[in-house]
Amino acid sequence: MTVLIDVHSHLYPAWYLERLRQNKGTPRVHRLGEVEYLDIFPGGRPDPMGPGQPITDGFTSGAAKLAFMDAAGIDQSVVSVGNPWVDFLSPGEAVFLATELNEYMETVCSDSRGRLYGLGVVPLQCGSEALAELDRIRQLPHLRGLVVPAKPALGPLDHPALLPFWEKVEATNLPVLLHPHWTTGWEDFGGHGPLLPLVFGFPFETSVAAARLVVSGLLRRFPRLDIILAHAGGTLPFLAGRLDQFTAGRPDGPSVMTDVSRFWCDGLTYHPAALRCAAEVIGRDRVMFGTDHPFGSPNGQRLIETLAAAGFDEATEQSVRGGAAARLFHLGPQHLKEAEA
Ligand SMILES: [Zn+2]
What we know:
The protein has 341 residues and is of the alpha/beta class. It has helices at 14-21, 57-60, 62-72, 91-110, 128-139, 163-172, 195-215, 218-221, 236-247, 256-260, 272-282, 301-309, 314-329, 333-340; strands spanning 5-10, 28-32, 35-39, 53-54, 76-80, 116-121, 143-149, 176-179, 227-229, 264-266, 287-288. α4 packs parallel to α5.
């Protein structure tokens, strides 16, 4: 059986959480009683959305990450720092911390003996410094791509100021995990704690970000970009036909269904029918297993069961388990030999 590879998994350095403890407003780490929370939702919201995500060992411990993987039967993980990355910082601090985060991730992954590979963080608000960080990431052997916010503080992903970034990403051949950042529509989601922002706000944010890459023509301008949509593409697989319909009359309009099939996605749906929808619309060979650990499913079992229940043919199931990820990130059984050596 193909190795099981988790392409959506997060880890934070302890010193980064310490930096977030210094923030008065969100994003912040704060304590209520005995528990610390990571609160990333935007400030100024009309209704409390709960204190945030309780911080556990899984946030900062490489050993806890490996223990989770062992318990779930996950052979390798592609690990990224989670929200809020460096978007909330001044340009000078963002450049400094992005470099530090990338060095941290390289060290954690190189110490894992082939179990962990990483994604790099780029200070998008910093122009040429962001491009220079791409060069540094390229030199770190255990970093195999980037994690990029779906809604950067600089502006939407199709903002003209980001064109040099996309051009360089394509040239460096680094896959990009497009991950929701602040959630969207939070003004409509109050009254039920963090439930509605987490369940709807994050996937909607990813859906709109991906749609902007399609309708702006950016995907066609940079045809070799490999962009992985978090949470199975949000709602994009379900709504792609609608996007296609409403752009079909434009003479220079994008071929939406073709563009959508150029994305990759993780399989984080928690439902076999939704997973099949992502595979049918984005591509059976472009869906990759993901857990979002330490968030979401506490032990990964429901996601493993969802994949088993999807009714995929053998080739598709093996591709989702790890074949597609091994191809995209240049991973696979040969790298696990490092662990046995
Ligand atoms: Zn995530």
